[in-house]
Write a structure and sequence with these properties.
By secondary structure, the protein is of the alpha+beta class. It is built from 7 helices and 20 strands. One zinc ion binds next to loops.
Length: 353
């Protein structure tokens, strides 16, 4: 497989971000990601998809959309739509209809920031996902860098601290979202997890000081979705777009918090009697399955079955675990950074049936 680093979920001046598509391309080139997916609110912006180059480096920009009903109070149920070939903002009133329309248009949908609590110190309301009766979506945004910020800023002073020292923000996905994901998986659903930055590059003024807080480039170095492609990127935008979205749709991806150390190189695979699979895939339990993971540098690895940790390895670079028990298996990896043990890698599951 060919791993690429994708940063997804960000806003430009077409909605409530402060930068342009060109700014995003420049920041992505600097940060060294392979692709970005820009998702402005309720508008599928045309004309910016394609490769952006600088000297020997290039990045692929894809354009999706973040959809929600702006007439709803509060404005909950945000949906990320990728690869839908048409504007879908007319269907935001009914989340299930919207999900169906994304699918009809050949696209994928992910429930954005499923838990996104209020931050009263900043007049920010709770915009969590509310309608859990929905079906047939592709997955959820397990780790949203901005939702997490809302959970750690009880006062304006906290906000100022994190604005000045953004590396302290990310700890792990919001636990309620992880529990929700495990519950959905336990019901037999396949739910692909992705990580999003929700980058806005907002301006903040404190007296005479004015600066961009959480700039795009910072976000592109933090929570990324690492996608495992069947072929390397070709350099042709349409071919590569198809490769990336196919892999994401199958859950051939993991969420990596790349700031403490690069997560590039992580693998989670399973070998059965007849075949080998990667995360996102299914395998029969019969005759035994060997689950294996490798991490790029030393950290604490946890193997989970149906949402519960069944084994932990500390300071190891890999593990092998043999089982004959059906279940949904996934891996979490933790690493010490800035004085705390923080979530580093969240794999998609391997479904042993
Ligand atoms: Zn949103
Ligand atoms: Zn957003």
């Amino acid at each position: 497989m060919h791993e690429i680093v994708v940063n997804l979920h960000m806003h430009t001046r077409y909605s409530d971000g402060s930068g342009t598509h060109k700014d995003i391309a420049a920041a992505a080139l600097k940060a060294g990601v392979d692709a970005v997916i820009v998702t402005d609110h309720n508008v599928l912006v045309q004309g910016f998809e394609g490769y952006y180059k600088e000297k020997t480096k290039k990045i692929l920009m894809l354009i999706g959309e973040e959809l929600h009903d702006q007439a709803r109070v509060p404005q909950k149920n945000h949906l990320l739509a990728f690869n839908a070939q048409r504007e879908l903002a007319a269907f935001v009133e009914n989340p299930q209809l919207l999900i169906n329309k994304v699918r009809d248009a050949g696209g994928m949908s992910f429930l954005a920031h499923p838990d996104d609590p209020a931050a009263p110190a900043f007049n920010e309301t709770d915009i969590s996902w509310e309608d859990w009766s929905v079906q047939n979506y592709t997955g959820i945004e397990l780790w949203n860098a901005l939702s997490e910020l809302k959970t750690i800023v009880p006062t304006k002073l906290h906000g100022a601290f994190y604005a000045l020292f953004p590396a302290f923000v990310a700890h792990h996905p919001i636990p309620a979202t992880v529990t929700r994901w495990d519950d959905l998986l336990a019901q037999g659903q396949r739910v692909v997890a992705i990580g999003g930055s929700d980058a806005h590059a907002l301006h903040m003024s404190l007296g005479p000081i004015s600066r961009v807080i959480f700039p795009y480039e910072f976000h592109f170095r933090t929570v990324n979705t690492h996608v495992l492609l069947t072929e390397p990127l070709s350099g042709e935008a349409n071919t590569d777009k198809k490769l990336i979205y196919e892999a994401m749709g199958q859950g051939h991806c993991f969420v990596g918090y790349d700031l403490p150390a690069p997560t590039r190189g992580f693998t989670f695979t399973a070998q059965g009697l007849d075949k080998s699979v990667i995360m996102g895939d299914e395998l029969p339990a019969k005759n035994g399955v060997t689950l294996q993971a490798k991490i790029p540098s030393g950290a604490e690895i946890r193997l989970l079955k149906n949402g519960a940790v069944i084994q932990t390895w500390k300071n190891k670079l890999s593990f092998a675990h043999i089982t004959t028990e059906p279940g949904v298996y996934r891996v979490e990896v933790y690493r010490r950074y800035l004085g705390k043990l923080r979530g580093w890698i969240y794999s998609n599951p391997i479904y042993v049936r």
